Amino acid sequence: MLRRLLPTLLALGFGLLALGWGLVSLQRIFTQEREDARAQVRSRRIALEQLAAESLRTALAQMMKSHLPKLNAAVGDPLLPAEGYYLLFRGHQFLPRVDWTREGADVPAQANYTMLAHALEDGQAPSPYQERLSRLRAAEAALASSSEARKDAAVEALLRYHAAHPLPPDQELPFTLLMVEYLQRGEETQPLIRALVREGLPEELGGMARDAGLQRNVLRSRAQLTQPDFNFLQARIVALSSTLSEPSDAFVARVQEAGAGALVLPEPLDGPTLLAEQWYVEPAAEQVHGLAVDMGALLSELTQELRGRNLIPRDGQVRLGPGGVARPLKHPGLEVATPGWAAAEADIEARYGLKTLLVAACGALASAIAALAVVAQQRKYRFVELKSDFVSTVSHELRTPLASIRLLGETLERRLGKSPEAGDYPTRIVRAAEGLHFLVENILSFNRIDKGRWALRPARVRLEEAVGNLRDDLMDAVTVPVELSSDVGDVELDADASLVRMLFANLGRNACLYNLRSPVVLTVRAYPQPGFGATVLFSDNGVGIPPEEWERVFQDFYRLTTPGPEVHGSGLGLALCRRIMGLHQGSIQVASSGPEGTTFALTFPETRR
């Protein structure tokens, strides 16, 4: 059944493949339509996001440009606020200020201050301070006089010496602090003395470069002081500033600010970058400027700008999408979100889903039609099988009368054998019955083998015996004289003996039917083939087969047209021979053919021993 349905199945398979290819192509078109529609929405969004990114870059660059003077000023003046500014120069971070006090609990600055205070009273001081203390006493004495010129000269001399002979911070700062405290006179304090607290000495007295006032110098020297020393100097400077009515709020604020703003930059830094959504940094040749930013406010301004230009609806919003800590401003990852775009994408997906469902329904319908076609074809071949079974049954029923005809003919032949005029009739009856019996056996055998119902019964078959059976079969079945010769030696085959007899009988009868010579000459030769079995050559002296017919003669019900009288037959002989050889896993083919006769080559598989 499966073999008969194979052409239908192949046709349906190719049809389904073609339909599947068409449906896949249609689905690809639908997918491309969806991608095009989504690309239109996405392109508008990308354009707006690029516009927003450019606006953000411009806004940040302008902010940096406006704050750059304050940033540079904060680097030079430690009293200026540095919150929100960043400066990295040659690998060192200047802003935000990250100067921590030196580790340890020793207080050298406080000890020096105490020692100098006692030295002013008893006049005993170490060598670095002797000249300083001497000039300090002179300045204090001059301040007690009424001569302004003397006062100014004494103070100026002290300060020039002080500027010309610098000391380490833990020595310089205590002396300067003590000097101001010793020489201050409240509201009447000399301007140069007052300047030592906050403004520092004038440039002509050695100021600016190193002496910028106690408040600035303590902040600059923080990293060289321990925390107790720093706290001691800070407290006394704040108290002194209050006494002299000098501002100290900025100083106190910077004390609290220092050490709280360390930043870590990613490497490498490729152009302007947002850090942690809080800092905007711009790299230059040897330095990096930075500015603290409020991204929420900036994005809100960008949103209002786009709304004002009618580029996004009132419910649209500009926001930062997912990203890392560092966002290069080349691609800041801005997103423009509007509910309208989400609705448009949902509508695109809904249409695509409906089209996909339509394609799937077409595919399911085609599969159902193919299944119905297979069922219909199966039923058709079921009727064909019923017809074949009917033919088989009828052929079986013909065996009984044929056997009776043959028995009666043989009986008549024995009884009338002595009567010359009637002796020929019984022989004719027997031969006709034998021919009919052979035809019925061919039909039955062909039908059983074709439907796979023949159970092969292999046995050891001597080829010489098979040739002898052929000689007996032809003697009873044909009227023309036959000369049968063989050269098979002792070759044996593993085969079904009845099928081998039927195989040779069909070849022999065909040779007699398609022959114009007398006698009919048949030759059987066998050649053992190592590793495969044996090859049997069956030759006759018939009319021959044209080369273009060598394969067609093995087709079912195919009859060869030959010159001369019409040859009767069923067209099953050679077709049955090929099926017999196929059942034995062998082969049969025309080896040669011409006017002198035809030779068939039969190849049998290896004989098992």
UniProtKB/TrEMBL annotation:
It comes from the Bacteria. It catalyses: ATP + protein L-histidine = ADP + protein N-phospho-L-histidine. InterPro entries: HATPase_C_sf (IPR036890), HATPase_dom (IPR003594), His_kinase_dom (IPR005467), HisK_dim/P_dom (IPR003661), HisK_dim/P_sf (IPR036097), Sensor_HK_Regulatory (IPR050736), Sig_transdc_His_kin-like_C (IPR004358). Pfam families: HATPase_c, HisKA. Signal peptide: none annotated. Its EC number is 2.7.13.3. It is an enzyme of class 2 (transferase). Keywords: Kinase, Phosphoprotein, Transferase, Two-component regulatory system. One of its GO terms (molecular function) is phosphorelay sensor kinase activity. Residues 393-608 form the Histidine kinase domain. This is histidine kinase. It comes from Corallococcus exiguus. The lineage of its organism: Bacteria, Pseudomonadati, Myxococcota, Myxococcia, Myxococcales.
